């Protein structure tokens, strides 16, 4: 069977106006990729039948499958079904089971069903109907002349389960390939340097493919293989994973791990270790990111945010003479903060940050962006000196984020060595 | 001048594959609406020159302005500039100032600049270049035959400031009116309740207009007046601001203040007060948000993140019997944490959080989403009980964010009362 291709067409003026972020398109893109369906375009149009019709015609001139979201609701400007049915030359007919479900929905909510809700049970003639247990508007599929349209509701909590329970099985039945992929997470190398190392591999790669993704201070590499039924995806992926490991293994902190904080918490759990944080310039960013991870309460009992020198002395036992001689932003202070919080808490690993996040407070000797990250543990003691380029409008946020990433990476490293 | 219309064209395979949610399109939609530019379509294509070219041609057949994001990076698949320049019949030429900025960027990072980065300084002939202080790829505008294309970088932290500092003024200059606006920040009222109070005003408003914006747990109202040269915007805005104050004044915490943390820090500075935080379920989120604000070191000396009960007792002096009798997630513990951190630090105001952020750890009696926020000060002592609806894919993040917002709002309130 030839490779299917699809376009995603999201309908809603609230998306165009930016009142709603289009998470549906991202979800559908991800899910369709996994099903082996190529998506070459996403489009957003408002609740306007003429522009929707144009977009639909253009989309079907380029691909086999169009998935729409939105415009199935009860109000006068919800016109997706009418427009798409008309494109296929079909009329809308009442679907009694859908009407019964909508009536039931209102009965359960103890609310009166207004007349315009009947509109939601009017479905294109001959379509396959998808019930919507999470809302009132059913979805549907229309297949005709090699063209396949899916109409899904707009709210993500209605759309996603409908895709999972009806659309994915519908497509799976038609396909003989699927995609398997791995996301490799790296830290400490830039996107262009990584590409430099792997450029030839990226360009030459076809199955699996290798593609870089950058996010603030981190890089990821996605390895994706297309496999037919019965073929072993893992064995297709393995040689590429090995190539990446050989080229940049020292920078890899995890595969499919999601984030530095996930990697750090997972490594601590795995090794049965605990951590305590002592933050100055990051002001709680490290503990905030660690505690994003469910289960982090098992590894993080204590964190302190010691912005003031007095707090550094009183809570962490940083010596007055260290602060006097070297200053709060110094390698020595970072070390004593990490040691201090480890001692105070009894944790296995102490992590500290002290630096100048700006925009004020920099000097020639200690400029904005200078940050020290301290690690204290039985196996690994280190102070990292960072010079973070204070760039952009929100340099303060950037410096603090990058500093917290380095702290999490140092924590992961310390746990990994234990 | 006739009303301009624009399309947004986002370029990036990571958007099509759903690895990145397209927040850029929402941002641009919102900002363009604010500038009075109509947006009828958003489109996403991958890093594919042919499909980009097709989309560009179609877009310009429908509208005057196309704004692209993405594809300006250093790698071989970043082809936006080449493709768009070719559409306008222009070649790329080296822009020495852009190259100098990119070289400086790598020098500051102490990283070697690889050859492919030079590509980012190659710009379409005769374009207007927008420097990018937040990254390496500059943006630009090309204007020709009544068509106007803007090319902006993909990462939101580079794209947004470029839009604000270059694109918006560029568009405004072509217009003979300008917009003046005020953002009213409210907390403690939902968008629909606020809309209910002000529905008639919103619908009837033309100049100034009144429009609601919701963000996680907060609502903002934007009052916008369109003024011609020489007209006084302030006097147009004043009556509308007064109308809003009368309808919902009790929920307003600031105008053009940016965020709860800005409002809180500003109020503390104004009153010469200090604060200390004691966080359990928010794990540093409150101190992280407070220390986002430059100058916060003058008001926040101490923060502790006491995830473990032992830490609550040892650092904050929460009594063992309180923890035994009422549990860590209780009004009593929240009160003792706030009192404790205030005593420990000597700060004027102590703020605490304790709750169940989930997804695990909830019980029937104390479900996920139950959070207590404590405030301790000379003038205002209070424990707030919150029942945060654990909704969405990332309920944990949502609960922690909303809890930290309430803590910041309570802090603002305490400072305001002092």
Describe what you observe in this structure:
The structure is a homodimer. With about 425 residues, chain A is of the alpha/beta class. Chain A has helices at about 15, 25-35, 50-60, 80-85, 95-110, 155-170, 190-205, 235-250, 260-270, 285-290, 310-315, 320-325, 330-345, 395-415; strands at about 5-10, 40-45, 65-70, 90-95, 120-125, 130, 140-145, 145-150, 175-185, 210-215, 220-230, 250-255, 275-280, 300-305, 350-355, 370-375, 380-385. Chain A has a six-stranded mixed β-sheet with strand order 2-1-3-8-7-6, with helices on both faces. A five-stranded mixed β-sheet of chain A has the order 14-13-15-16-17, sandwiched between helices. In chain A, strands 10-11-9-12 form a four-stranded antiparallel β-sheet. The relative contact order of chain A is 0.08. The interface between A and B is large, with 89 and 90 residues. Strand 2 of chain A pairs antiparallel with strand 2 of chain B.
Provide the descriptors you would attach to this structure in a database record:
homodimer, 418 residues, alpha/beta, six-stranded mixed beta sheet, five-stranded mixed beta sheet, 14 helices, 17 strands
Instruction: Please tally the β strands of chain A and state the result.
Output: 17
Oligomer: homodimer
User: So what's the overall shape of chain A?
Assistant: elongated
Estimate the mean pLDDT confidence of chain A: 91
Count of helix runs of chain A: 14
Unreliable segments of 5+ consecutive residues of chain A:
none
Question: How much of the residues of chain A is beta strand, in percent?
Answer: 25-35%
- Largest β-sheet summary of chain A: 6 strands, mixed
Judged by helices, strands and strand pairing, the structural class of chain A is alpha/beta
Distance between the termini of chain A: 52 Å
Rg from alpha-carbon coordinates of chain A? 27 Å
């Amino acid at each position: 069977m030839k490779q299917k291709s699809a376009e995603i067409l999201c309908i809603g003026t609230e998306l165009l106006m930016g009142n709603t972020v289009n998470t549906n398109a991202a979800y559908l893109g991800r899910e369709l990729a996994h099903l082996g369906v190529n998506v070459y375009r996403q489009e957003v149009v408002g609740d306007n039948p003429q522009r929707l019709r144009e977009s639909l015609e253009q989309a079907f001139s380029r691909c086999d499958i169009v998935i729409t979201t939105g415009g199935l609701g009860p109000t006068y400007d919800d016109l997706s079904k009418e427009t798409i049915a008309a494109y296929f030359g079909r009329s809308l007919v009442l679907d009694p089971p859908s009407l019964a479900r909508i009536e039931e929905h209102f009965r359960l909510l103890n609310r009166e069903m207004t007349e315009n809700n009947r509109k939601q049970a009017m479905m294109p003639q001959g379509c396959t109907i998808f019930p919507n247990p999470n809302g009132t508007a059913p979805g549907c599929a229309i297949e005709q002349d090699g063209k396949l349209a899916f109409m899904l509701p707009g709210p993500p909590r209605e759309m996603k389960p409908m895709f999972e329970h009806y659309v994915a099985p519908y497509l799976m039945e038609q396909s003989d390939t699927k995609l398997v992929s791995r996301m490799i997470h790296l830290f400490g190398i830039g996107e262009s340097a990584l590409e430099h190392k792997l450029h030839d591999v990226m360009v030459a790669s076809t199955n699996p493919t290798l593609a870089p993704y950058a996010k603030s201070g981190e890089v990821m590499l996605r390895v994706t293989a297309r496999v037919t039924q019965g073929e072993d995806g893992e064995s297709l992926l393995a040689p590429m994973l090995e190539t990446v490991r050989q080229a940049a293994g020292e920078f890899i902190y995890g595969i499919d791990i999601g984030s530095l904080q996930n990697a750090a918490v997972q490594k601590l759990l795995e090794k049965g270790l605990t951590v305590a944080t002592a933050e100055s310039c990051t002001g709680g960013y490290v503990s905030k990111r660690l505690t994003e991870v469910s289960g982090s309460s098992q590894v993080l009992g204590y964190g302190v945010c010691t912005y003031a020198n007095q707090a550094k002395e009183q809570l962490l036992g940083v010596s007055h003479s260290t602060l006097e001689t070297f200053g709060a932003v110094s390698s020595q202070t970072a070390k004593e903060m990490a040691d201090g919080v480890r001692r105070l808490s009894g944790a296995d690993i102490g992590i500290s940050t002290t630096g100048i996040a700006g925009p004020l407070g920099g000097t020639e000797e200690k400029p904005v962006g200078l940050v020290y990250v301290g690690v204290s543990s039985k196996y690994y003691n280190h102070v990292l000196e960072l010079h973070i380029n204070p760039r952009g409008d929100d340099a303060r946020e950037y410096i603090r984020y990058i500093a917290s990433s380095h702290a999490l990476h140092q924590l992961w490293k310390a746990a990994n060595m234990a």
